[in-house]
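Need the bound structure for manganese (II) ion, inputs here:
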Amino acid sequence: MKELLDYFKANEARYLKELTEFIAIPSISADPARRHDISKTATFVEKQLKGAGLKNVKQYPTKGNPVVYGEWLGAKGAPTVLVYGHYDVQPVDPVEKWKTPPFEMTIKNGKMFARGTADDKGQVFILFKVIEAYLKNTKQLPVNVKVIVEGEEEVGSTNLATFVKKNQRLLSCDTILIADTNMLGKDTPSITYGLRGLTYLEVAVTSLSGDQHSGTYGGGVANPIQVLAEMLVQCKDPKTSKIKIPGFYDDVVQLTRKDRAELAKIPHDDMHYARAIGATKTFGEKGYTTIERTGARPTFELNGIWGGHTGEGVKTVLPASAHAKVSMRLVANQQPDKIAKLFIDYFKSIAPDTVKVDVKLYDNNGHAALTPLDSPAMRAAASAIKKVYKKDPYYTREGGSIPVVADFQQLLGVDAILLGFGLPDDNLHAPNEKFDVSQFRAGLATTMYFFEEFAKTK
Ligand code: BES
Ligand code: MN
Ligand code: MN
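Answer from helper R.:
Posting the output first, comments after.
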């Protein structure tokens, strides 16, 4: 569609101006103080969907942040695409590490810097603009579309499953399109067909009713930081990186020889991979490649650990307690609740009788998901990529999570096509998040072709 490609070019300045406004609202879902900004962002999305020409646009309140919905169902006999994205973003700390203000879009060397440019405002915005371009230029779309944009993805989409359950008819569709993932590189386009699941907990190990002088009491009672460290060490074998929680691997779908052969085709260099993030070398579960370990194998990760004196200088203290935030990335068919319970039981079982253990389970969880490669929607995505990038895509498994994808599969019976345009160096969840303008442009064209190609499949 030459007409639309020209339209994208002619309207780029306006797109970037609108995206700058979208980015400027600090919709951090993890921060209760940002409730008002969440609401402003939902209203911004509502206006975008209306402006794009969608019908029945409205905000659906949930127990948490509102879901924004809109649809265009004028393509008689054509398939229906449910488009999903999220308008919430991650916190910006450590804010001093940002080279430009986190909520001020700064375009430099063809890269847009700000929180949410890649995850996910800049990407979901591509979908808004493709729909708008079709409806403005041709008064129609080749497929029916339903758009759902939520505001709780970064905190585990806690209330979205309930929304999907309640609105199964409203959301019924033939495929789901999501732009919230990465490609291998600008010149190595790829489609994600797997996401990991997640469970997230916080543990506290307490040995005293209050902090004490480390000289007076040190040596007399257990030090909770020491105990916590010893307990955490017992969760994963230091040599093999096998997770030692009994039953942890029971439900893991093992990689087949064919899976492994497919993953081995992905261009990857361990040294380059490590260097790019300042690591001396790769490290992880024995017997698996880095690609396998990050996409198709579960992990046990420590996200934070604290206790006692962490401020400047010395303070001779015997702390009362020690804490850690622990998460596990899961793969099919591991159940987050079951895994959390296995961890809690094991963690309590290894605690010495000198301490009390408290565990808090966060509801930031999600199931892993896999999309079959041989579906009409997947083929449509591959030919759309080929039209724009002039190359066949690779198929990759993402180590991150998008919790609603498994809920969609289960509740709507439909798989999601993860056609995202981020790049591995986008600094997601970190300071100086960016999104390449060239990927934004390629995203517009690829998504346009996806709709066209998918229309031919019914
Ligand atoms: N867009 C990401 C998922 C992702 C991560 C895609 C890395 C590509 C590369 C998503 O917004 C995300 O960050 N998900 C969270 C989910 C969690 C809070 C339940 C994640 O993976 O940590
Ligand atoms: Mn995201
Ligand atoms: Mn994210």
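Comments: The chain is about 35% helix and 20% strand. The chain has a mean pLDDT of 97.
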